[in-house]
Amino acid sequence: MLARRLAFVAAAFLTPAMAATPDPQATAADTVAMSIDASKPGAKIDRNIFGQFAEHLGTGIYEGVWVGPDSPIPNTRGIRNDVVAALKALKVPNVRWPGGCFADEYHWRKGIGKSRLATLNPNWGGVIEPNSFGTHEFMDLIGQIGSEAYLSVNIGSGTPQEAAEWLEYLTTDQPTALATERAANGHPAPYKIPYLGLGNESWDCGGNMTPEYYTRQMTIYSRFVRNFNPAQRDAGKMLRIAVGPGGGESRWTDWTEVVMKAWQGHQWSWDMEGLSLHNYTVIKWPPAYASVGFGEKEYAEILQKTLEMDGLIAKHSAIMDRYDPEKKIALVVDEWGAWYAKLPGSPEGFLAQQNSQRDAVLAALNLNIFARHADRVRMANIAQMVNVLQAMILTDKEKMVLTPTYHVFHMYVPFQDATFVPVTFDAGTYAQGDVKLPRVDAIAAKDAAGKIWMAVANVDPNRPATITASVAGLAPRSAAGQTLTGPRVDSVNTFEAPTSVTPKPIAARVQGGTVTLTVEPKSVTVIAVQP
Ligand code: AHR
């Protein structure tokens, strides 16, 4: 009984912030009261919102994932074992490949078979593309990490026939010439392709198309690029994702209108199940903000920018609602994340950047936004998985380091396919110069076992926050989890110091249906509330 009313704070689990003397700046306003209502379940938070994006760009594939079977770096059939183990732990639901802009210049036949001919990668530094990582290697990666394939087909410079043959090669179980070739290349059984992107940024690097022209092209691909895998005929049907908007201005709302209107009046002969949205957190173009060695001003500005994601989703969702009130079409945020200036000394076009505690907070804010829009946003892919933009993992030859963003994705694993439950709170304000941000952010969800998971981001880099969360619809008995922060807003993990930003255990106090915990400045915390 006593245990029900008063859960413990195990001394061993105390974080420095909890154990230390209270911050002299802390005031009563540092307490944020939240109400979680577990009796009002919302939409399922689709695990696919934790998807990754891996493009042939910089060292994202070559070195980051693929080192080749003869490499001294431990590998399985050419794929790095350390990277696979790290990704496995993230329970990556899907990986988008081969691009990006790269996809609209990719010709899959060059990436199969024994002799691979070198081509160029004109989008990203004009470097040699050896084609040694192709279709079979990608599917092997998917298998090794226990994920699912999200292929982007080439609409920009390819043909419907080329894309249709790729899918036949991958998915048919009939003894066609393409299936025989697949078997000769080592995979007699058909592959499962659950997600198919119909082009990429067709309004820009994917071919500078108008929405009308794109829609005509897309419907042709939708018709002819078939998945023949018998296991995907009914329940596991492949979802086709059309190119969607890349911003909030009228150019982009027009795009959403045109594609959605076409879908509303669509014939039996074509269909789509998703519309993509690309939105990077970037200030100035070309990106000028540094990924490391910045101060509080840049911290606040970038986080302010990232919160635009919410309005953007709301804007395009409202248009989609007019044509699709039943929300059959998913909004797929298949490129998102921070885009900073390239690291000094790194090659042009490689999009190499560091990843700091700021990015951890940024990732949490975006994941929380996706969760709040879970009824429409059912898939998302952070850009990108390894060594590019807001990466999970950085590698340098045989070395590997996990970024703060990786740790956030790891902490959020319990939210995969959990049911959203509402949290209400007055966030208060964190101010930095002219920038004013909600001081804290939080989401909650119920998992299949009935446990409540709560994620709290303390955006304020100077003050801890004491969260008192009352829980309705469930009698909480104990609560504990992990918290992530670093010494500074720009703290990073490096190959020399890989654990500067690393999760620590945190425990909460539970009393009379209220969970109380103190979160450190600029932190991300995930706790499980046990009934
Ligand atoms: O992620 C880098 C690039 O950003 C992608 O190739 C493209 O789709 C977007 O513009």
Q: Key terms for this structure?
A:
binds alpha-L-arabinofuranose, ten-stranded mixed beta sheet, eight-stranded parallel β-barrel, 24% helix, alpha/beta, disordered N terminus, 12 helices, 531 residues
Polypeptide structure, described:
It is a single chain. The chain is α/β, with parallel strands linked by helices and 531 residues long. The protein has 12 helices and 26 strands. It has helices at residues 2-5, 16-19, 81-90, 135-145, 160-171, 177-184, 211-224, 250-264, 296-306, 308-323, 357-372, 404-411, and strands spanning 31-37, 51-53, 75-76, 79-80, 95-97, 119-121, 127-129, 149-153, 195-198, 239-242, 274-281, 330-338, 377-383, 393-396, 399-402, 419-421, 423-425, 429-432, 435-438, 440-446, 452-458, 465-472, 478-484, 504-511, 514-519, 523-530. Strands 16-20-21-26-23-24-25-22-1-17 form a 10-stranded mixed sheet. The protein has an 8-stranded parallel barrel with strand order 2-5-8-9-10-11-12-13, surrounded by 5 helices. Strands 3-4 form a two-stranded antiparallel sheet. Helix 5 crosses helix 6 and helix 9 (296-306) runs parallel beside helix 11. It is globular and about 65 Å long. The two termini are 13 Å apart. The model is unreliable at 1-29 (pLDDT under 50). The chain binds alpha-L-arabinofuranose (AHR). The site of alpha-L-arabinofuranose has 10 residues, from loops.
Radius of gyration: 23 Å
What is the straight-line distance between the termini? 13 Å
Number of helices: 12
Largest sheet, spatial ordering of strands:
16-20-21-26-23-24-25-22-1-17
**What's the number of extended β-strand segments?**
26
Structural class computed from helices and strand pairing: alpha/beta
What percent strand? 25-35%
Mean pLDDT, to the nearest integer, reads 94
Characterize the main sheet: 10 strands, mixed
Cofactors and ligands: alpha-L-arabinofuranose
Can you tell me the overall shape? globular
User: What level of helicity do the residues show?
Assistant: 10-25%
In the predicted model, the low-confidence regions spanning at least 5 consecutive residues are 1-29
